[in-house]
UniProtKB/TrEMBL annotation:
GO molecular function: protein-disulfide reductase activity
Biological process annotations from GO: cell redox homeostasis
Protein name (database record): Thioredoxin, mitochondrial
Keywords of this entry: Disulfide bond, Electron transport, Redox-active center, Transport
Family under the similarity heading: Belongs to the thioredoxin family.
PANTHER family (UniProt xref): THIOREDOXIN, MITOCHONDRIAL
Domain Thioredoxin: 24-140
Gene Ontology cellular component terms for the protein in this record: mitochondrion
Organism expressing this protein natively: Rhadina sibilatrix
InterPro entries: Thioredoxin, Thioredoxin-like_sf, Thioredoxin_CS, Thioredoxin_domain
C-alpha cells in the first residue's frame, strides 16, 4: 500500500522542464584532437605511418590494469604538447594483425614513430617524468 501511494505521488508531480541552454559547449580546446583510436589497418596506415607529425602508438587492451593507468597519463602529456605529437590508441584484441606486425608481445607497449618508422619503444608502465622524457626525445625538445 505504501509503495502504491509513493508511486502515485511520483506520477502526480509536474513534469520538469529542461535546463535552459546558454549556447556554451563543454569540451577541450577548439577541435584540437591529439589522441585518436585506430579503426583498422588502412586507418593506421593513413593516420600513423603517413603522418607528417611524430606519433606515439599506445598498444593496449581493455582487460589490462597497467594500460588503464598508463593511457590517461600519456594522453594528458600528449595534449599538453598542443599538436607537436599525436597519440594513436590500438586495442590489441581488435587489431591483432597490427600487434603482430609491430612485435607487441605484452601490453602496454608504446611506440614512438616518425615518418613511418619506429624510433623508440617501451613496454610496461612509466611515471610522468619518464613519459615526458620519452616525448621530448621524440619531438626533439
Amino acid at each position: 500500500m505504501a509503495q502504491r501511494l509513493a508511486l502515485q505521488r511520483l506520477l502526480s508531480l509536474p513534469a520538469r522542464r529542461p535546463l535552459a541552454s546558454h549556447g556554451r559547449a563543454f569540451g577541450t580546446s577548439a577541435g584540437l584532437k591529439s589522441t585518436f583510436n585506430v579503426q583498422d589497418g588502412s586507418d593506421f596506415q593513413d593516420r600513423v605511418v603517413n603522418s607528417p607529425k611524430p606519433i606515439v602508438v599506445d598498444f593496449h587492451a581493455q582487460w589490462c590494469g597497467p594500460c588503464k593507468i598508463l593511457g590517461p597519463r600519456l594522453e594528458k602529456l600528449v595534449s599538453k604538447l598542443e599538436g607537436k605529437v599525436l597519440m594513436a590508441k590500438v586495442d590489441i584484441d581488435d587489431h591483432t594483425d597490427l600487434a603482430i606486425e609491430y612485435e607487441v608481445s605484452a601490453v602496454p607497449t608504446v611506440l614512438a614513430m616518425k615518418n613511418g618508422d619506429v624510433v623508440d619503444k617501451f613496454v610496461g608502465i612509466k611515471d610522468e617524468d619518464q613519459l615526458e622524457a620519452f616525448l621530448k626525445k621524440l619531438i626533439g625538445a
